[in-house]
## 1
Amino acid sequence: MPEMLKKIVQQTFPIVETFHSVQGEGAWTGTSAFFIRLALCDVGCWFCDTKESWSAKRHPQQSIDELVQGSIAANPSIVVITGGEPLMHDLTQFTKALHQAGLRLHLETSGAHPLSGEFDWVTLSPKLFKPPHESVYPHASELKIVISQAADFEWAEQQSQKVSDLALRYLQPEWSQPESVDLIFEYVKQHPEWRLSLQTHKLLGVR
């Protein structure tokens, strides 16, 4: 193996977890998916359900080669790179290696950092606490806004103006605020460009 290629496959990332499940949210709900959750996040959402991913120090490093082999072994329809905030890492060589293995790649990101890597699908879930980098908006395949109160719809519309007309637009209830479902339900009826997204994996009690 050439020395340069050897260095690439040995590049490591802090990994919170990897697991094989189904995509629980958005357009690909119900699809067999292998999730790679990278550690590190500086967005700081108060409603985050994976706060253990914010720091990289407590999580083991895995090489690109290990992660690619794990993804191949799972034999999923899609590989989802998530976090934390995955764009805090340079994903260029990682995504190249996964694509070379014939895998379809999805990214779940707040967009708070410049885009790196090449993806087949990008789920952009921007947060008011740390708005997206402008480089991410043109690549959004779907826009997902978490709604906890009525004031969040203004943020949703602002973000909607920044993505492609072809991007799917989802409003997702904040899990700990049950009233947000009713808010979204009524909003979607009046704004047909938006769709309601539910975290079906939580409803089903699966990963």
## 2
Amino acid sequence: MLSAERKQFILETLHRDGKVLSSDLSSQLKVSEDTIRRDLRDLADAGLLLRVHGGALPASPQAVTYTARQSQAQKAKVAIGRAAASLVRSQQVVLLDGGTTTQQVVQHLPLDLHATVITHSPPIAIALVEHAHIEVILLGGRLLKNSLVSVGVSTVEALRGIRADLCLLGVRSLHPEVGISMLNIEETYVKRAMIDSSAEVVALASGEKLGTASPYIVGPISQLTHIVTENTVSDKILAPYEAAGVAIIRA
């Protein structure tokens, strides 16, 4: 079998099963595990999967600019944002993560809502200006330009002094085994601090982020209380998250 045929088989198996093992691929394709490891390395270099010990997992969607992400999966983001906004209650302290999906949460918050929103995202803070009864606290730090959020020691330290009722978390990847993961290590530290500072943690994840993994681990799926995702995601995909004790909200 040619290299291109092996790689196509690997990707098809990965898409079907959600993971591949080098030992299984070696047996199925009748080639050495060294050959499989080279194929996996090539596919990882192309951004098509994430190599892990003994095999590979589906890779998270490729990173693009904040502006470009605003045009991706717009219908799903609007629906997820609306559903997540309905979880916010009067007088709550809410940690609102950065991202284009959490931006949609702001668009669906009632204008008469009385709450405190703490965010490390300048676009989120600016979008809340029209909400006269929401106190907005913007956390400082170094601006991560690709995501338009503050990161760094000062951001993490500020979060450690907060006890929020609710955290609405933007994510890059969710995987039942790997957990919550990100492409940027500094964002990982901030998200860990947000989770640790919140009574309830809600991940906002469109369908293409489920079952994928990124290099930097935020924490296990069990740290989430809810996942808000699209109503088109199948029961089979969502079952492992529910088995971990996470409530699923379909938008």
